[in-house]
Amino acid sequence: MALRTSKPSYNFLLIMYCVLYITYNLQLITYNLQQLTTHQKNKKHIMKQKTLGLIHTSATLVPVFQQLIAETLPGINVFNIVDDSLIKDVINRGELTPNTARRVVDYVGSAEAAGADFIMVTCSSIGAAVETAATLSKVPVLRVDQPMADVAVQTGKRIGVVATLPTTLGPTSDLVRRRAIAAGKEIELTSRLCEGAFEALMSGDAAKHDEMVAKALKELSTQVDVIVLAQASMARVVDTLEEADKRVPILASPPQAVKHLASIL
Questions:
Q1: Taking the chain, what is the end-to-end CA distance rounded to the nearest angstrom?
Q2: Alpha carbon 75 to chain centroid distance?
Q3: The listed CATH number (3.30.450.20, 3.40.50.1860, 3.30.460.80, 3.40.50.920) that belongs to domain 146-253
Q4: What is the pLDDT of residue 33?
Q5: What CA–CA distance (Å, rounded) separates 105 from 118?
Q6: Residue-by-residue DSSP string for 136-189
Q7: 83-87 long-range Cβ contacts below 8 angstroms, 24+ apart
Q8: What is the 3-state secondary structure (H, E, C) of 46-66?
Q9: What is the Cβ-side half-sphere exposure of residue 18, based on CA atoms within 13 angstroms?
Q10: Cys-Cys link to 123, which of 36, 57, 231, 244 (CB 3.0-4.6 A)?
Q11: Residue 211 CB neighbours (<10 A)
Q12: How many angstroms separate the CA atoms of 191 and 81, rounded?
């Protein structure tokens, strides 16, 4: 006896078609939602991307900050303005003159005009001019040694400041005192000038410079709770010290400044 096979009814076919249609549209809606979410994330990322303007008085600091920022702030745009005549003028005259201060303010204004969302000046010797520029700028302006000074004030009461230039020693020491007052902390400040070290470095005798700075760091570490390096050029000397000579924290401005930027940008 032959088996009879029934053809699918019209209603069954209609139901199957509707199921397939709904399934297809649900998949299409899901895909579109995923695309929209991805677009919003990318848009949000683009909107969050900031531009940092760095103003230097030495071209040697450009790669230093470039590496630190690449490690700590990989998603940020950076541009550099360099003019070593600023620090040369301060050294030659023995102080920050009104004319040089005005030029610093102008450079900060140029960085703002170039699209910087945040500006940092990487030279401690012109710090007073940076603070003046900050009051005139529509975007935040930071002097490179302020985060370092804040960390030092929070680290200990006895703070040592080491420099190879008197034009840097004074401004950095003054900054530490003022940041201590702002934090409501009582400190004891010991300043140490490595006379002749900067001249040795400029004449090409880096070994003599490093030796003089290392000696000052070793001596000062027995007298204070934390040491502040007034110039970024001295930071490399810390790596040459024996662990036994690193009795207290030795702070350099570039890493502390970039760490601070990472916390607010």
A1: 84
A2: 13
A3: 3.40.50.1860
A4: 73
A5: 15
A6: H-SS-EEETTHHHHHHHHHH-SEEEEEES-HHHHHHHHHHHHHHHHHHT---EE
A7: 83/55, 83/56, 83/57, 83/107, 84/57, 84/58, 84/59, 86/57, 86/123, 86/126, 87/57, 87/58, 87/123, 87/125, 87/126
A8: HHHCCEEEEEECCCCHHHHHH
A9: 6
A10: 57
A11: 16
A12: 30
Local structure of 26: helix, strand or coil: helix
**Token output for 232:** 């970024």
CA of residue 211 relative to chain centroid, distance: 28
pLDDT at position 11, please? 66
Lookup: tokens for 214:
């290392």
Which two structure tokens, joined as six digits, stand for 241? 């010290």
CATH assignment of 48-144, among 3.40.630.10, 3.90.640.20, 3.40.50.1860, 3.40.190.10? 3.40.50.1860
**Does residue 185 register a pLDDT over 90?**
yes
DSSP helix/strand/coil, 192: strand
Alpha carbon distance 164, 194 (integer Å) = 5
pLDDT for 1 beyond 50 = no
Residue 71 identity (one-letter amino acid): E
Instruction: Kindly list the strands in the beta sheet with 250-252, ordered across the sheet, starting from the edge strand earlier in the chain.
Output: 188-193, 158-163, 226-229, 250-252
Three-class DSSP category at 214: helix
Domain ranges of the chain: 48-144, 146-253
Mean pLDDT of the chain: 88
Which 8-state DSSP code applies to residue 88? H
Span 225-238, mean pLDDT?
Answer: 89
